[in-house]
């Protein structure tokens, strides 16, 4: 077990966890948001982040501090906590982002780690190489090798009780990300940022982002706290949390505020385009859009920054509650409807249903079938796997209708989209208690047919008959030839 992190609750790949940060003497509940603080300009003072927004942790850039003389002197003399006036945990980035933007920085991993310790950082970051998406494989491999050397070097630096992060790189090559995750996990380092995903998010490539995170997670193992580095927009937090990301940092709240952009969980709006403020935070209840537009630039930026942050923290709380209640994927389904690329992200997440299934609880409160994608949720996959282990009599009717009288069959099971067949004794157990719309969709019927096919494949000697209510021919075509079919829709049974 990794000592600094403990998982308390899970739902799909999402989890509520506790990250113990010994140097700050605080325990941060995850999923957590780390507002990004630029030591040279704060849109919202760090103290306000703690008192007004409940921030338990923030992130700032040690390279900027290192390169700005007066800030450096004050950080070395008074420490980061006093410099920023923040009582929670402080994570520091190393300048890798500057490296990716400007191609060069003038510190080594040892220097920047020692500097981070000297200024009182609670979670430090070595200088890794953030390899962008889509580079050729040779470059991705070579840069990953350098990153891995830096991580091994970081292990040897005397860092006291400061936690140290181990970024996972590998560009858009899933096998490299997985290998990078496995290597990072084998070090003694503590927190695992999935790096260089900002270009993917900037281009709305949420499908590729999910593949990258899923691959890193396969390498990292279940007890590693995972940080989605540079993930700033609350719109995609639920999706990323469902794939198993525990820490998010947000510079977006401040950067967007600077451009008069107003964050919502369904996307970004420009203040000029808003006739109403669709939010109940203190900023939006006290101002109209006209009031905000009339404010002097710096005040407007600060008010918009506060709104953006309220929305962002609210989404984190909503995600935690969804994990606790076992309906995180239903929240992801709602968010997926906000933008076609988010839907791509959700569909990609479901490509990893087998991976999510490992951490998904066996029993939860409810399963609401709220979109065609619900047919691919991990609970459906798990039921299909369970079908292979159930004892089946010689002759079995699986039916959407009631149990037949007489002894034509040895037993009769129910069939429900999207799960497929199950013994009637399981009717009251999760997820078979699911709420499914009466006007079901093709995906649910297909998943049910796949369940029947799986049962038939596991029991080749059994005579299985399906009683269905008007399933389309294409759906029935998914069944093997040895399953007999009765259409109940015209027989009233
Ligand atoms: Zn608001």
What do these coordinates show?
The strands form five sheets. The chain has a six-stranded parallel sheet. Strands 16-15-14-17-18 form a five-stranded mixed sheet. The chain has a three-stranded antiparallel sheet with strand order 1-2-3. With 493 residues, it is of the alpha/beta class. It is 42% helix and 17% strand. It folds into two domains: 5-353, Alpha-Beta Barrel (TIM Barrel), CATH 3.20.20; 388-487, no CATH class. The longest helix has 29 residues, at 297-325. The protein is built from 21 helices and 18 strands. A hairpin with a 2-residue loop joins strand 1 (5-11) and strand 2 (14-21). The protein binds zinc ion (ZN). Residues 279, 281, 283-284, 307, 310 line the site of zinc ion.
Give a concise summary:
Helix content is 42%, strand content 17%.
Layout of secondary structure:
Layout: E1 5-11, E2 14-21, E3 26-30, E4 32-37, H1 46-51, E5 57-61, H2 62-67, H3 69-78, H4 80-84, E6 89-93, H5 96-102, H6 109-118, E7 123-124, H7 137-156, E8 163-164, H8 174-186, E9 192-194, H9 198-202, H10 206-220, E10 226-228, H11 237-242, E11 247-250, H12 252-258, E12 261-264, E13 267-270, H13 282-286, H14 289-294, H15 297-325, H16 328-336, H17 340-351, H18 353-357, H19 378-387, E14 395-399, E15 411-416, E16 420-422, H20 442-458, E17 463-468, H21 473-476, E18 483-487
Parallel strand pairs: 4-5, 4-11, 5-6, 7-8, 9-10, 10-11, 14-15, 14-17, 17-18
Antiparallel strand pairs: 1-2, 2-3, 12-13, 15-16
Helix pairs in contact: 7-8, 8-10, 10-17, 12-15, 15-16, 16-17, 19-20
Bound molecules: zinc ion.
């Amino acid at each position: 077990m990794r000592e600094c992190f403990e998982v308390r609750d899970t739902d799909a790949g999402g989890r509520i966890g506790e990250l113990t940060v010994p140097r700050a003497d605080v325990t941060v509940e995850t999923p957590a948001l780390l507002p990004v603080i630029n030591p040279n300009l704060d849109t919202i003072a760090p103290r306000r982040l703690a008192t007004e927004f409940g921030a338990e942790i923030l992130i700032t850039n040690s390279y900027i501090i290192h390169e700005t003389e007066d800030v450096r002197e004050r950080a070395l003399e008074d420490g980061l906590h006093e410099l920023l006036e923040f009582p929670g945990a402080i994570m520091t980035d190393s300048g890798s982002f500057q490296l990716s933007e400007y191609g060069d920085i003038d510190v080594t991993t040892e220097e920047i780690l020692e500097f981070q310790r000297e200024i009182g950082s609670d979670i430090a970051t070595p200088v890794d190489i953030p390899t962008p998406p889509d580079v050729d494989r040779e470059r991705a491999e070579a840069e990953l090798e350098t990153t891995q050397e830096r991580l091994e070097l970081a292990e040897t630096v005397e860092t006291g009780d400061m936690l140290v992060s181990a970024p996972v790189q590998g560009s858009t090559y899933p096998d490299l990300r997985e290998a990078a995750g496995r290597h990072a996990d084998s070090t003694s380092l503590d927190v695992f940022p999935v790096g260089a995903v900002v270009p993917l998010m900037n281009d709305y490539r949420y499908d590729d982002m999910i593949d990258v995170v899923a691959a890193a997670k396969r390498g990292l193992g279940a007890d590693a706290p995972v940080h989605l580095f540079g993930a700033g927009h609350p719109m995609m937090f639920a999706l990323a949390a469902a794939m198993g990301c525990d820490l998010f940092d947000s510079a977006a709240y401040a950067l967007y505020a600077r451009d008069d952009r107003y964050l919502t969980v369904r996307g970004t709006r420009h203040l000029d385009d808003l006739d109403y403020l669709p939010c109940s935070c203190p900023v939006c209840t006290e101002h109209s859009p006209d009031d905000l537009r009339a404010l002097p630039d710096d005040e407007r930026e600060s008010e918009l920054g506060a709104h953006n942050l309220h929305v962002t923290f609210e989404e984190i709380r909503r995600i935690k509650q969804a994990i606790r209640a076992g309906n995180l994927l239903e929240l992801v389904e709602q968010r997926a409807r906000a933008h076609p690329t988010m839907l791509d992200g959700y569909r990609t997440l479901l490509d990893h249903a087998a991976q999510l299934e490992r951490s998904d609880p066996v029993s939860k409160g409810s399963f609401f079938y709220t979109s065609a994608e619900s047919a691919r949720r991990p609970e459906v996959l798990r039921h299909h796997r369970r079908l292979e282990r159930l004892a089946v009599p010689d002759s079995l009717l699986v039916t959407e209708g009631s149990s037949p009288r007489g002894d034509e069959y040895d037993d009769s099971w129910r069939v429900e989209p999207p799960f497929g067949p199950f013994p009637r004794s399981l009717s009251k157990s999760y997820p078979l208690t699911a709420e499914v719309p009466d006007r079901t969709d093709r995906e649910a019927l297909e998943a049910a047919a796949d369940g029947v096919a799986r049962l038939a494949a596991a029991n080749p000697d059994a005579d299985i008959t399906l009683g269905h209510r008007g399933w389309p021919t294409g759906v029935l075509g998914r069944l093997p030839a040895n399953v007999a079919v009765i259409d109940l829709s015209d027989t009233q049974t």
